[in-house]
Specification:
Shape: elongated
CATH class of the largest domain: Alpha Beta
Largest sheet: 8 strands, parallel, barrel
Distance between the termini: 43 Å
Number of helices: 11
Structural class: alpha/beta
Number of domains: 2
Radius of gyration: 21 Å
Strand content: 15-25%
CATH architecture of the largest domain: Alpha-Beta Barrel
CATH superfamily of the largest domain: Aldolase class I
């Protein structure tokens, strides 16, 4: 349920309500808006009436949340959440671009890519050090060596690092190098991993599962938030359908749908969503038009030699050209593409 406090209620009133709820065994989460404060309470609904919360002068109303997701819901947090990391804002008027190779292959490769995407306007460097692959014989990543290369690229360019964590046992290691930890599609419902990430004080980029419904995806985010980590970013990366021409079907309806139901930022991955580099720029443009807060795009200095996902990776020149077009679209939408020269 959500307890809506009257306008002007202060810390004393908030703590009075929190105290009552905590004593009754409810898990309490506070959301303080510009005009009003909301208190989310998760627990035994049968005990709501005995608390007589609406008898308190500071309480405007008590609203039950029927949806299974609570903290993720816009009912709990009516205003858009903006996640700030390293001085960059995700979820505000700025559109953020995360770019880099599918996998970190070498020091030279990641440094060259980082310099190029930075010059083109990206503020985040993506790159996989641990790679969950369909085949056990495929390249599995460089591990900590790859993380070190990403950290060096950050030091040289100022780009923030986004990289995937595959195993709960590696969270501490990956978090020591990364600014944002990514949960891949295959791990969206790895609840042990999500619970461990819920105790982390770093943003989590949660990709949609290969066949996940909207509710399943939001419930995965709920796992992270329920443990205390409210820094969750949704990432639509396409789902598996009957179509075989593209790698996946990029479901852009999820962008406005999530923004209707949830307060969390939403970004789009047109690389995995299509599987073909030629389709990445137009779908990136469509994602911005749909209201996405950002993009995560695969970029490689030489895609034809990439150890993974070369077919869906933009080369450096194609990425520069795409960024120029995206900057124009962002302006039309009344938003800004952070980092693009001339902004």
């Amino acid at each position: 349920m959500i307890v809506v406090l009257r306008k002007g209620s202060g810390e004393t009133e908030i703590q009075e309500v929190v105290g009552r709820l905590s004593e009754a065994g409810f898990s309490v989460h506070i959301s303080q808006g510009v005009e009003k404060s909301l208190i989310g309470a998760i627990g035994d609904r049968s005990r709501i009436e005995e608390l007589s919360l609406e008898a308190l002068s500071c309480v405007e109303k008590v609203v039950p949340i029927l949806a299974p997701y609570k903290l993720v819901s816009r009912e709990f947090h009516p205003e858009d959440s903006v996640i700030t990391v390293g001085g960059q804002r995700i979820g505000g008027p700025e559109i953020q671009v995360m770019a880099g190779p599918c996998a970190v292959e070498s020091r030279e490769q990641i440094l060259e890519t980082a310099a190029a995407v930075k010059e083109a306007g990206a503020n985040f460097l993506r790159g996989g050090a641990f790679k969950p692959r369909t085949s056990p014989y495929s390249f599995q990543g460089l591990g900590e060596e790859g993380l070190r290369y990403l950290a060096e690229a950050r030091e040289k360019t100022g780009l923030l690092v986004v990289t995937e964590v595959v195993d709960a046992r590696d969270i501490e290691l990956v978090a020591s190098y990364a600014d944002i930890l990514q949960v891949g599609a295959r791990n969206m419902q790895n609840f042990l991993l999500l619970k461990e990430l819920s105790m982390l004080d770093k943003p989590v980029l949660l990709k949609r599962g290969l066949s996940a419904t909207l509710e399943e995806w939001m419930m995965a985010a709920e796992y992270i938030m329920a443990g205390g980590n409210y820094q969750v970013i949704f990432c639509e990366r396409g789902i598996r359908t009957f179509e075989t021409y593209t790698r996946n079907t990029l479901d852009l309806t999820m962008v406005p749908a999530l923004q209707l139901l949830s307060h969390l930022p939403v970004i789009v991955d047109p690389s995995h969503g299509t599987g073909k580099w030629q389709l990445v720029p137009p779908m990136a443009q469509a994602a911005l038009a749909a209201g996405a807060d950002g993009l995560i795009v695969e970029v490689h200095p030489c895609p034809e030699k990439a150890v993974s996902d070369g077919k869906q990776s933009l080369n450096l020149e194609n990425f520069r050209e795409m960024m120029k077009r995206l900057e124009k679209i962002a302006r039309v939408l009344g938003r800004s593409l952070k980092g693009v020269a001339g902004e």
